[in-house]
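Structure tokens please, single chain.
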Amino acid sequence: MKITATKITDLSDAYLAIESTMRSGFTAKCSLDQLYRWEHSPSRTQLFWIHMMNIPTKVSVHLVRHAAVGQQHFVMSNRADRGGAGDNQVTRNSPVNHRMLLNAQHLIDMSRKRLCYQASKETRDVMLEIQKAVEGIDNDLANYMVPNCVYRGGYCCEPKPCGQYNIKRYDPTAITKKISIKDQESKIHRCKKHHKDFTGSICPECEDEDSDTLVAYHEGRENK
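Here you go.
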């Protein structure tokens, strides 16, 4: 197996895209790291050829599944009339050459699924090699090619966690409630109303709220 990566565009193409959306006089100054972290449309100006030689057919099939989001995949045929072994000889492990034309956002999204430990081991191995190849030409992008649990900040949404990472189960409703500033302010308001003369270290009526903000309020502001 051999995998190579070639970058077709550069940061100047992203600047052109950004400046096209702004009024005259604006000059884009972002870095590639910022471009990939933001994940807005200009990241899609960064185009790559990924060439994979002698990878298993089953891995090629896994990668082709991502083509629905605009990638272009070119896979060596196994048809007998095209020089291949033919239907009676080809298996899921038969080696093929596979070339992908895709952008930076495609690689970030593909990595989220194919670097996951619940992906096929062979596919994950190929994705790791793709990441290494990209690292050699765009280290900033390689840093953002991570499995989904890392991308989501420690939350796993797979049916069964892999056990390789210390993760939490993905629950968007609970996360939204936990990080909502408006919701936290509402909780503190209730504490102020119900516990004006509270002097303990943890409010017994709020200890089930699971909120560091509430504890900080009762230990700090309320006791002043």
